[in-house]
Amino acid sequence: MLKRRKLFKLLGIGSLVGSAGFGYASCIERTWLAITRVNIPIKNLPADLDGFKIAHLTDFHLDPHYPRDLLQEAVTSTLDENPDMIALTGDFISHEKSALDELLTILQPLASHKACYASVGNHDMWQFKPKEIRQKFAASGFRLLINEGEILRTSSHSPLFVYGLDSFWSGKPDRNKALLKAPPNVPIIGLIHEPDPFEQTAKDGRTTLQLSGHTHGGQCRIPLIGYAPAKVSWGKKFIHGYYQIGESHLYVSSGLGTTALPIRFACRPEIALLTLRRSTPTA
Ligand SMILES: [Fe+2]
User: Fold this and answer.
1) What is the pLDDT of residue 143?
2) What is the pTM of this model?
């Protein structure tokens, strides 16, 4: 009898802890914005690009569950940081095409930044044809790059080249087309929603820094494992944070939204502030 009472007590405690954990993951952590600051050491970076700051936002997944206050906070926080460039790397929506109009309205203040670029994610291209989504972004003043790129020139920095690829999961990515206008010897930044093509990126050798999302950093990270049990296609190798292969660099952001269950655990919604740094050549 005593043993049974103990068992019921343990079950009661377990369900209380479970409910509290779910409440925390759905109500607190999912809306608790983090700003992550990372230096990216780049060999032969022009001296005047040392300190060039990129604000990277991704995976909004706007749906009825999305906390709109978080979006407003993300926009305000991004502009407060006064970045040199803003990169938005896809999955703007989840399943509702109509959500894109509302999202672009909320993100509108970012569009007027002198160097704000966007690329598409798998969810976007499951819902939209390239021409249709291009028109939506253009009408809102955003520069959307689908297998295309352009030189980013400012009065205070040496030029960079920025390109975006179509989704590897749901589109037709074409890196050669995107890099057609890339001049030699300038740092190249690639907006590529899914992170796993980073191995191809490094092998190709032309891209200095790849910016990706897609994995949501795991969304619910399990202590000691660091990732949810199920991994997503094209997001199995590079889950969250900074990676380097040779002279190619990758940052994978945990993004701002959620898919499947609207919860996050040990993986807060994130704005990544990436600062390019001139690395010291080693002998
Ligand atoms: Fe995705």
Assistant:
1) 98
2) 0.92
